[in-house]
Write a structure and sequence with these properties.
The complex is a heterodimer.
Chain A (H helix, E strand, L loop, with lengths): L10 H22 L2 H18 L1 H4 L31 H36 L2 H15 L3 H12 L3 H28 L2 H8 L4 H37 L11 H10 L6 H28 L8
Helix pairs in contact in A: 2-4, 2-11, 4-5, 4-7, 4-9, 4-11, 5-7, 6-7, 7-9, 9-10, 9-11, 10-11
Chain B lengths: L1 H28 L4 H6 L5 H11 L5 H13 L13 H36 L4 H15 L2 H15 L14 H35 L2 H8 L4 H38 L5 H11 L2 H29 L1 H6 L1
Helix pairs in contact in B: 1-12, 5-6, 5-8, 5-10, 5-12, 6-8, 7-8, 7-10, 8-10, 10-11, 10-12, 11-12
Classes of the chains: A mainly alpha, B mainly alpha.
């Protein structure tokens, strides 16, 4: 080594660090000046907060019945009206958010992890394994989500577990494909070749060296997948093959509202709004993040 | 092209096999006697014996799968548990309603979304571009079943413009069309924005290519450049997207059929699930996935035909 040990940090390195932090500041300010990004962030934070603090925020017990006040429209006592058993719709919406958050958190993280591992194996492993995994992904993706759910429920009966399983199985291929493509691009880069020639094991290469470079796009994809997952849960619960009554979920509120749609419009209106706000929030946020970190894929404005 | 065609067909056949295997193994992955599972509450000893005989349940699993496969290939998907009619006949009655719905839904979305995307790309930054941008993100975010419910509420129950339930009187075309409008509107709405966005993005990319600049330099009319040269290339990713998107469209159609009580395949599967009519469920699922696989195959072949670069990649 020609550099003496007492040499201070080279000027170029300092400059590089400086420019990196400048870039970060610029990214943050461009994020904050984008109204869609800020709206997305606000909606997402509201979703998390309302779901987590639902028991304290809800004005009523979500399952407390008040038959004389059944199917009433919005009023000061019940800001989103009541359902056919006189339960307060607003409280049920808040508690339904917990189901959505639960499914989104577990579903998205599980399929992200499995998709990441399978994708890295497909991208790094031997050709036959890659082909086999691709075939498997194609087969799974050939089932439209609802069709797969109906086929499963025909055998097992409806439950939250089925919803989770469907969510995880149907979304794994999209993570796996992204991870696979990114891994293949890395496969022949010099630092991976160097690791290999140093004798690093395959798991070590994958989890210590490939994963940090692959995880970024996957996290953005995860934000974009939350609306998909939340919609699947709401949709299946709406069909009566997901969350079971009396538990409140946005889907069951819509289901019960649909049954009485000729008597009161308020339940299907109130049940749909949180669903739209949540999917809109995550979509806006995901797009803003993608524009920030991968301008090539962005909205191109 | 022939080489690509053969490879792609082989791949599709493999995927169909895998789907059949998944469908077959579902009955066997659940602990318990498959006959009792499939027959549900109607499982009398005679029915179980007949079903076991028919499905060769006393043979090894692999043999059963081969029988299942052979029957499926010959178009025998078993019989409806209630009416004992062949599943294929039941599906044949229903599939027209579903195909009409899906084609109309996708059709109006393409007819509106693609020109919108072109307009937005040709005039970036104008009001039409901005409205398209916001509209498209907003529409993508709304689940289609919610559009169906709200459309039913607004247009059928509140305004009373359109019928709410069923598919119309058989033979009365205008009645059938009026029953088609709302579900087709609901399943296509999200696609308008999605397509517009996709076309806009790939159009912007293509419009920057040197060959478009050459076309301009030759003095070709802008309309001709956009429609004849740019769109031809820019439409390719959109075709893939439409092909892949049919899966989501089938899901939307299932919801729309249930919400509007339209007697299509989706409604059939849904009712069969509540009745535990397993042969119908299995047949319906097979038809739905098979249809989706065919659409993706067709869109891939169409792209390979339009774009020589793709043929070399597989």
């Amino acid at each position: 080594m020609s550099v003496p040990p007492s040499d201070p940090v080279p000027a170029e390195a300092l400059e590089l660090r400086e420019s990196a932090s400048r870039e970060r500041r610029e990214k943050l300010s461009s994020f904050l000046s984008d109204w869609q990004a800020v709206a997305g962030l606000v909606l997402v934070v509201a979703f998390f907060a309302s779901a987590i603090f639902a028991p304290w925020l809800a004005p009523y017990d979500p399952n407390a019945m008040d038959i004389p006040a059944r199917m009433s429209g919005p009023s000061w006592d019940h800001i989103a009206g009541t359902d056919q058993l006189g339960r307060d719709t607003f409280s049920r919406i808040l508690h339904g958010g917990r189901v959505a958050l639960y499914i989104a958190a577990i579903g998205v993280s599980a399929s992200l992890v499995v998709g990441l591992v399978l994708g890295m194996i497909a991208g790094y492993g031997p050709r036959w394994l890659d082909n086999l995994l691709l075939l498997l992904f194609d087969a799974v993706r050939s089932f439209p989500a609802v069709i797969l759910a109906l086929a499963t429920v025909a055998l097992t009966g409806p439950s939250l577990t089925v919803v989770l399983a469907i969510v995880i199985i149907t979304t794994i291929p999209s993570y796996a494909r992204v991870a696979r493509t990114a891994t293949m691009a890395l496969r022949h880069t010099e630092f991976i070749l160097a690791e290999r020639s140093l004798g690093a094991s395959t798991p070590r290469i994958l989890f210590h060296h490939v994963m940090p470079n692959v995880i970024g796009p996957l996290l953005i994809l995860a934000a974009m997948e939350v609306p998909v997952v939340v919609s699947i849960e709401a949709g299946l619960s709406f069909l009566g093959i997901g969350v079971l009554p009396p538990q409140a979920s946005w889907g069951t509120i819509l289901n019960e509202g649909y049954l009485v749609i000729r008597d009161t419009p308020w339940m299907v209106i109130a049940g749909g709004i949180p669903l739209i706000l949540t999917t809109l929030g995550f979509t806006f946020l995901g797009e803003a993040l993608r524009d920030l970190f991968d301008p090539r894929m962005g909205r191109g404005r | 092209m022939l080489n690509y065609l053969l490879k792609r067909l082989g791949l599709a056949a493999l995927v169909v096999m895998a789907v059949l295997l998944l469908l077959f193994s579902m009955l066997h992955m659940i602990p318990g006697n498959p006959a009792i599972l499939a027959l549900g509450t109607r499982a009398t000893p005679e029915a179980i014996a007949a079903y076991s005989e028919r499905m060769h349940l006393d043979e090894p699993v692999l043999t059963q799968f081969i029988f299942f496969l052979g029957n499926a290939v010959q178009g025998d998907l078993g019989n409806d548990v209630f009416s004992n009619r062949p599943v294929t006949a039941v599906i044949g009655e229903r599939i027209g309603f579903t195909l009409a719905l899906i084609c109309t839904g996708m059709g109006w979305a393409v007819l509106l979304g693609v020109p919108l995307g072109c307009l937005a790309a040709v005039r970036p930054g104008t009001w039409i571009d901005r409205i398209t941008g916001v509209f498209s993100v907003g529409m993508i975010a709304v689940p289609s079943f919610l559009v169906s419910i709200w459309a039913l509420l607004l247009f059928s129950l509140h305004l009373r413009w359109l019928p709410a339930i069923g598919a119309g009187e058989p033979g009365d075309l205008s009645d059938q069309l009026s029953h088609l409008i709302l579900p087709a509107f609901a399943i296509g709405l999200g696609w308008v924005g999605y397509l517009a966005r996709m076309v806009r993005a790939s159009m912007l990319e293509v419009m920057g290519e040197p060959y478009i600049r050459s076309a301009r330099a030759f003095g070709l009319k802008p309309r001709r450049i956009v429609l004849g040269y740019a769109l031809r290339v820019a439409i390719l990713p959109t075709i893939t997207l439409i092909g892949m998107g049919f899966g989501g469209l089938i899901s939307s159609a299932v919801f729309a059929e249930i919400i509007f009580s339209r007697p299509g395949v989706g409604k059939m599967i849904f009712d069969a699930v509540s009745d535990r009519n397993f042969p119908i469920v299995q047949g319906g699922v097979l038809v739905a996935t098979g249809f989706y696989i065919l659409v993706v195959l067709f869109s891939d072949l169409l792209i390979a035909w339009l774009d020589p670069r793709v043929r070399a990649s597989l």
